[in-house]
Write a structure and sequence with these properties.
Distance between the termini: 18 Å
Largest sheet: 4 strands, antiparallel
Oligomer: single chain
Order of helices and strands: EHEEHHE
Helix content: 25-40%
Structural class: alpha+beta
CATH topology: Alpha-Beta Plaits
Number of strands: 4
Shape: globular
Number of helices: 3
Mean pLDDT: 94
Length: 105
């Protein structure tokens, strides 16, 4: 059995593009929630108005399939010209601490 994998993706909207970036993410989220292996795919607004996506996948293989899939391709196309810089994607390695429920994502 493989370990679940957690990922963050940070979207920095170009000036005046926050609402457009947010709107572009919504259909992608709906599509990705239907993908095999998607355990969590949620967005949050950071104080600097970047949008941070937190993802959790059953395995790295299913995350890789997601990255090569139609939903990501459509999202990338819909974000064209709306971002101040490329999306920063980071795969995270868990360091469990505390209780099983509260100490891991």
């Amino acid at each position: 059995m493989t370990e679940p994998i957690v990922v963050t993706a940070v979207f920095v909207p170009a000036p005046g593009q926050f609402d457009a970036v947010h709107a572009a993410l919504l259909p992608a989220i709906a599509a990705v929630h239907e993908e095999e292996g998607c355990l969590l795919y949620a967005i949050h607004r950071a104080p600097d108005d970047s949008i941070v996506m937190i993802e959790k996948w059953d395995s790295a293989a299913l995350l890789d399939a997601h990255g090569a899939g139609d939903a990501v391709a459509a999202l990338n196309a819909s974000l064209e010209g709306k971002l101040a810089r490329p999306v920063e994607v980071t795969r995270l390695e868990p360091l469990p601490a505390g209780t099983d429920l509260q100490g891991t994502l």
